[in-house]
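W.,

You were right to be curious about this one. When I first looked at the sequence I had no strong expectations either way, so I just let the prediction run and decided to look at it fresh. Below is the sequence, 112 residues in total, followed by the output.
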Amino acid sequence: MLISEKIFYYIEKNQLTQKEFSERTGISQSTISDWRRKRTNPSADRILKICEVLKVTPYELLSEQNVSSEGEVDFLLPLDRDETLLLEGFRNLQSRQKDRLIGYLTALREMK
């Protein structure tokens, strides 16, 4: 699967329009359209901003994982329902909230 195909999957999953994605990434709509039409991928210097907007890691976007016909992403590391819930929730937190959660996790692990 092309990286651009994954990008369009995540754009849809995040309920973004191509215009919104363009505005948030600073990538022109015509360039984004070219990815679909010409089946090309974005340049490397744009990957981090794309991942930030789509709330995915560069690994998720660039790895050889595939999206199934049901829209599920086939990750190399399978996650159960609770892990998926935690990961998706973590991605939606603000930076300070993420720091606090990581601090709490660290404290919990030290309680053993």
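Here's what jumped out at me. The first strand starts at residue 66 and ends at 67. And, maybe more interesting for your project: The chain has two domains: 3-74, 81-110.

Coffee later to discuss?

I.
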